[in-house]
């Protein structure tokens, strides 16, 4: 089966499995698991931050970052399609107790003039204090787009002018770095804290890392404890994360090339299906309105060809390329799409 549902479906590489089996471990609850400590030090150095903390998931990492940088009477700015707002069960409001201020974005980015105006309005005594501005790269719901460094720097500057911090949901920040051709630290420099996933494009089986200033990460560890995220002999997981950071970053370019080729093939079926120019990393949204067949039905049809995917809405399918999808798999997938498109046309 060729699985396009997400890059979270990747299997650990043989090198990861070997490292996990041989990992030296301690008790991370006491901060003495040497492999976890090595992973955290490596992640912090790569992102140019003082400290880092391993967490089971990106959702927990984002939530710990909010816990550590906000308090009662504060609010957090989020873009209207942000993962942290739409897909993380409202933890910021329900668990941390801070409300969202949702700002409309374009391509996953809040226009900088709007952001500046909203930040300025928060200085009034009757308004909640804006403590945190959240950004996302790559932006999931916007199709894996990569906000430019100049934009991210402008957001950071605007936030600092109003005594607010910036948290980056960087689940796929290494994809962003590869797409921009810059060190990941250049992107991370535009935020105070950054969460990234080891278990997406980097292919590790479990885990995310929150990076930031030492004092913030210390508070985040308290939040992780509160959320039940304390890990024990977690070196068996951290070992795979170290291998992921050492071996899986540069190959993300292959995923991007496969996604572009997939988009070009879908565009050839019908130009309304997909715009290859909109594909910047490893996420492709395919719109099947023109076929007259809903996305759920397309997924069922493709399953008969050994293609696993899922609808993102009634007419669109989200397709993600990753380490377990090869160039030959893209060829097979496009053949399946063409076959079903032809069958649909003949039926009409």
Walkthrough of the structure:
This protein has helices at 14-22, 34-47, 58-69, 83-86, 91-96, 112-121, 149-161, 173-180, 184-188, 214-226, 235-247, 252-269, 295-303, 327-347, and strands at residues 2-3, 51-55, 74-79, 100-103, 129-136, 165-169, 193-197, 208-212, 283-287, 307-308, 310-311, 316-320. By secondary structure, the chain is of the alpha/beta class. The protein folds into two domains: 12-247, 3-Layer(aba) Sandwich (Aspartate Aminotransferase, domain 2), CATH 3.40.640.10; 252-347, Aspartate Aminotransferase, domain 1, CATH 3.90.1150. Strands 2-8-7-6-5-3-4 form a seven-stranded mixed beta sheet, sandwiched between helices. α2 packs parallel to α11. It is globular. The mean pLDDT is 95.
Number of helices: 14
CATH superfamily of the largest domain: Type I PLP-dependent aspartate aminotransferase-like (Major domain)
Strand order of the largest sheet: 2-8-7-6-5-3-4
Poorly predicted segments: none
How far from one another are the termini? 29 Å
How is the main sheet built?
7 strands, mixed
Helicity level, as a percent range? 40-55%
Mean pLDDT: 95
The shape, in one word, is globular
Total domain units: 2
CATH topology of the largest domain: Aspartate Aminotransferase, domain 2
The CATH C-level class name of the largest domain: Alpha Beta
Order of helices and strands: EHHEHEHHEHEHEHHEEHHHEHEEEH
Strand tally is 12
Radius of gyration: 21 Å
Instruction: State the secondary-structure class.
Output: alpha/beta
